[in-house]
């Protein structure tokens, strides 16, 4: 690894630039007297000669600090007049890493407290720890930030309109790959949007999203790790859709989570399980999936990129496979045999 990279990493762990220069110089020269070390550091093209004066007093202080950290020692155990020797850094660097982690944690707490102070000054009394309102163009950015921060589970009611402009969701696919669970209840209107279905819904289901559908969902809602919920406006409230309500841990968040679970139990699955007969063609699996959402034949044909006549032939083939005469009978057969 280049010396400059080593210096940068040591500085990230809490060493000053001069201390990093001294340690890296000793790694290159081995044991070294104070006078020779000072000359080496000054002559190093990556050193501190142009950044800070390195006099005898400064160098002695930095050497003492490095000895205290356990990164260097004096040869033969001498306390004065000996040569400086680098020490195997594992223990010392672990100590520095723990110190820096504690500092980052304290900075995190300080930032949170400062932000809570800001919210208390801006929010109506008694609501500062419960609700937060995000407006306008910041909404999409905040939504992506929340998605990226999810660690365990995302629960969602999905319905138009969309602050992210009906685009793909690569963050969800990445999160699914890392083990984050997604459960999404789509409204019928979301599934009927053929472009959105192709670019967003289907890729997420293929990546492992658990998806169900209802004719309508009670509210546009996403819950992240059961510690934060976002509520935004549906088509009914589209005139004021430029608002996103953030709900922090509270009885309201618990109520929204309960609402999702109730709706999830009532919704129909949008994807088939592993018990579908191997003789069923892939297009027939897609048709069964789309039929279960309740969308029209015209929309199904558009999603699949086929004509209504071709769709009718496929539905007839599924009926034949199920031994049914009507779509109702076909649905009963599919449910009883674990197709859906």
* Mean of all residue-level pLDDT scores: 79
Percent of residues in helical segments? 40-55%
* N→C terminal distance: 56 Å
What is the CATH C level class of the largest domain, in words?
A: Alpha Beta
- Biggest sheet strand order reads 3-9-8-7-4-5-6-10
Stretches where pLDDT is under 50 for at least 5 consecutive residues are: none
How would you name the CATH homologous superfamily of the largest domain?
Answer: Endonuclease Chain A
Quickly count the helices. 14
- Count the domains: 3
- Overall morphology: elongated
Order of helices and strands: HHHHEEHEHEHEHHEEEEHEHHHH
As a percent range, the share of strand residues is: 5-15%
| Sheet with most strands | 8 strands, mixed
Q: Any chance you could write out the topology, listing elements then pairs?
A:
Layout: H1 3-12, H2 17-29, H3 34-43, H4 56-69, E1 72-74, E2 84-86, H5 90-122, E3 131-135, H6 138-149, E4 153-158, H7 170-177, E5 181-187, H8 188-192, H9 194-206, E6 210-214, E7 220-224, E8 228-232, E9 243-247, H10 251-266, E10 268-269, H11 282-291, H12 297-304, H13 308-322, H14 327-336
Parallel strand pairs: 4-5, 5-6
Antiparallel strand pairs: 1-2, 3-9, 4-7, 6-10, 7-8, 8-9
Helix pairs in contact: 1-2, 2-3, 2-4, 9-12, 13-14
């Amino acid at each position: 690894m280049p010396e400059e990279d080593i210096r940068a990493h040591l500085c990230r762990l809490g060493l000053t630039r001069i201390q990093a220069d001294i340690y890296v110089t000793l790694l290159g020269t081995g044991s070294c007297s104070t006078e020779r070390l000072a000359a080496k550091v000054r002559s190093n093209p990556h050193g501190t000669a142009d950044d800070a004066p390195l006099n005898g007093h400064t160098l002695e202080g930095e050497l003492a600090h490095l000895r205290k950290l356990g990164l260097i020692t004096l040869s033969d155990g001498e306390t004065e007049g000996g040569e400086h020797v680098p020490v195997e850094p594992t223990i010392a660097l672990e100590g520095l890493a723990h110190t820096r982690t504690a500092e980052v944690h304290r900075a995190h707490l300080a930032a949170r407290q400062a932000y809570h102070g800001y919210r208390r000054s801006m929010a109506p009394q008694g609501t500062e720890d419960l609700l937060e309102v995000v407006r306008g163009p910041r909404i999409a950015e905040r939504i992506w930030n929340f998605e990226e921060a999810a660690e365990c589970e995302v629960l969602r009611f999905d319905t138009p309109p969309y602050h992210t402009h009906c685009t793909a969701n690569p963050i969800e696919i990445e999160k699914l790959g890392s083990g984050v669970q997604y459960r999404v209840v789509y409204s019928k209107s979301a599934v009927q949007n053929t472009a959105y279905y192709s670019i967003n819904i289907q890729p997420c289901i293929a990546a492992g999203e658990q998806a169900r559908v209802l004719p309508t969902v009670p509210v546009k809602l996403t819950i992240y790790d059961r510690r934060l919920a976002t509520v935004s406006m549906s088509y009914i409230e589209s005139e004021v859709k430029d608002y996103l309500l953030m709900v922090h841990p509270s009885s309201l968040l618990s109520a929204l989570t309960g609402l999702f679970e109730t709706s999830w139990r009532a919704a129909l699955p949008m994807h088939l399980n592993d018990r579908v007969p191997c003789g069923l063609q892939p297009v027939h699996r897609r048709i069964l999936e789309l039929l279960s959402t309740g969308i029209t034949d015209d929309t199904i044909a558009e999603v699949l990129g086929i004509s209504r006549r071709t769709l009718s032939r496929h539905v007839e083939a599924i009926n034949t496979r199920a031994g049914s005469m009507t779509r109702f009978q076909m649905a009963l057969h599919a449910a009883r045999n674990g197709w859906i």
